[in-house]
Write a structure and sequence with these properties.
Layout lengths: L1 H10 L1 H10 L11 H10 L4 H13 L5 H6 L2 H6 L4 H13 L3 H4 L4 H9 L6 H11 L11 H10 L8 H8 L6 H19 L3
Helix pairs in contact: 1-2, 2-13, 3-7, 9-10, 11-13
């Protein structure tokens, strides 16, 4: 993160400003594999506390692996707190037979393409997985509202850049787009505390 932040600060004065103001962003790493993607699906459109509670109930009943998900009755998954739609998504993930070990060395575009084929996994989730679960240095998630808002503030833009525009901006931050995202999230938290950004 420090190497990438230094490169970005030299390449773009606004990143230098963010680095001076906030310091280097923290390294965010998560586990990869089935559980990580299942957790992403569980977390969609619910609070962090609700997602933790659902994941706790799934773990308590042993519903954390593809085989157990495939064998479980819908009633057991509903009892853990999953909606019908999320049950469908998680079953599709369990049936997909993704080779998670192969994804670790696959090109970034292939990782994203493989994951977005699954129902319930959009581009944002696939990009976040590549960034945090696989530790890729040059992936960006321009559909993230916090990244859009941080970019608006840091680059003094009149409005939040939309996904396509921000993806285009981020091309200039290669080969460190993941670090750029980390710096923007870090800056966003600072700006939110300072300015009350919603």
């Amino acid at each position: 993160m420090r190497e990438g932040a230094g490169w970005l600060a030299r390449a773009e004065p606004r990143f230098a400003e963010a680095l001076e103001l906030c310091g280097p962003p923290p390294l965010r790493r998560r586990a990869d594999g089935f559980a990580a993607l299942m957790g992403a699906i569980v977390s969609q459109q619910v609070s962090t506390a609700a997602a933790r509670a659902i994941q706790g109930r799934l773990a308590a009943t042993g519903l954390t692996e593809p085989a157990t998900i495939r064998q479980a009755e819908d009633a057991a998954l509903r009892a853990a707190g999953l909606s019908r739609q999320k049950i469908r998504y998680i079953r599709a993930l369990a049936e997909a037979g993704i080779d998670f070990e192969a994804l670790r060395t696959a090109p970034d575009a292939e990782v994203v393409a493989t994951l977005v084929e699954l129902p319930g996994i959009g581009r944002w989730t696939a990009e976040i997985y590549a960034m945090f679960s696989l530790g890729r240095a040059d992936v960006f998630a321009p559909n993230d509202l916090a990244l859009q808002e941080a970019t608006r503030i840091l680059f003094s833009l009149p409005e939040r850049p939309k996904e396509r525009a921000l993806r285009g901006m981020a091309e200039a931050w290669t080969p460190w787009r993941t670090v750029a995202a980390g710096m923007l999230w870090h800056y966003y938290h600072h700006a939110k505390n300072r300015e009350g950004v919603a």
